[in-house]
Each structure stands twice: as structure tokens, then as C-alpha cells.
Amino acid sequence: MKVLNITVVGGLAGSGKTTWICQQMQNLTASENIIYFSPGTGNVPIDQTRLAAEFPHVQVFQDGQEVEFLHQLTTAETVYIELGFYLELSSIHKILDGLSYQALAILPPKLQDSEYHAWADKIIKGADIDPNITANKLWRVPSSGQVIDEDSLREFWYEVTHGAYGFVSRAKGIFDVADGRVLYADFVAGVPTIDFLELDLPRHLEGRPQRFSGIEVLGENLDESTMRQTLEDCYLSETAIAQYQQQVRQILIEETIE
Fold this sequence. Notes:
Hypothetical Protein Yjia, Chain: A,domain 2; 6-stranded parallel β-sheet
């Protein structure tokens, strides 16, 4: 019987679970049969979308694809399962139905004697976040099909991460911007902020994009209605989308001629 190489990764929000998994995948060859599954993300699969773009050879599964995921386990060489902080650690038993795995926890250095320590076979030092933050509200909104002006997006993201809508400990999102690119945004309180990351996806310059985009925010006392309205105000109209796309297509044609 084939012995499966399954690693289940858990940890606090923003501790670096997805980052660690990406680092491991960079060390694997494209010829290997690799699987990634992160249950519980519902209709806002931000990490799955990012990994699928960065590692096109990896089979990425999300909620609603449990049957396909279990079927592919029989042939996979390497499997990573990421448990979001919102899931019970014991939920992995239901997912894997008795299969053996290595439990790995990505934890901030200051966290001691947690449930993760009792659960994990191995502890990896993650981001130096404050383990005492007790954010109690998770706000998720899909925005698939919407296109956003990049300047407006940057202003909105600054407001989100600087307390305009309540205290935010973790925020991430994927957005289609007016020039056809897809940007990934990531914020963790107490960790140096990085600029938006452009995902390696084809530019979309023909109408509304038929691919996932969305945002996830974790915090306290979040003003969800105002945050939602501000985000919606960033969405471009059909006319504006068409104008931007026409301009970008013309620029790309001119660059090709030169």
C-alpha cells in the first residue's frame, strides 16, 4: 500500500501558514504530483487562487471539491492541507478519515503552551505577531466580475489597514484592476507591510473578468456596512471598464510595434 506524504499545517491568523507552504512548493519539481487543499474558505478562496497562479502544476482544491480531493490522494506524491484558524484542529480527522499525516504548526515565537503545541508533531517559528490579539469578526466578500481602479483600491486598502473601519489584525484580497492585471494584497498587524503582488495570470481586456476576486478581513468592531459600500464605490462601470481596456490594448499594440 502506498504511504501518503500528507502535511497538515495549522496556526494563528497571519502566522505564515500559506507562506511556508509556498516556500516548500518552490523546492519541489514541476513533475511531482502535488496537492493543496484549504477547507472552510467558502466562496472566497483567496489562498487557493494565489497558489494556483504561482504554482500552475499544483492541483488546488477548495470547498465543494472534497470528493475530487480524496480521489486524487491515491496518486499524489506530496499533499499540503492548510487549516484556517477558524477550524477546529480535530476537523482534520473527518477530512482524512483515518489516513496518517504529519501535523505541523506555524506559530509566533511568543506563543507558548497552546492547543497547537499539543496537536503538532513539529513546530515552525512563524511571523512575530501578537498572540494575545483576540479578533472576533471575520468579514468575507467575493467581488468576482468586478474591476477596480488601482488608485482607489490602494486608498481603500490603506483605510482598511489603518483603522478606518475598526481594528484589523489580518486582511488579504485578490482584485482585478483596470489595466487587466490581478493584484494580491496581504496585511498582518505588527508585520512590515508589503506592496501589492501581481499574480501571474493573463491580462483580462475583454469585458468583465470571469475569475475569482474577493477580500477577507479579520478584526474587532468592524464597520462592515461602510467597508462594503466603500469597496463597491471602487468598482468601475461597464463604460469605464471598456474605456480602460481599450486604452491598455492600444498601449500594448504600440509597444509591440516599437
